[in-house]
Task: structure prediction
Amino acid sequence: MASEKQVEAAARALFAEGRHHGWFKITKSFDELDPIGREEFLDLTWRILRAAEEVRMRPIQIALLFLKRN
Result:
């Protein structure tokens, strides 16, 4: 699973892309977000990374289940 530093790096990249493409109307930088907004954005990023990790691990989990049955 992603470390706190990895989540923050991903959040910063996602935030910068969102500002660049106009996904949301925030004029502040990531560092200028209030603590609640920053925590919510970090949580969103963590959930995205977790979902990606689950998809990456799914074939391994399926293979292990298959091996256990045989």
The longest helix spans residues 35-69. The radius of gyration is 17 Å. The chain has a mean pLDDT of 89.
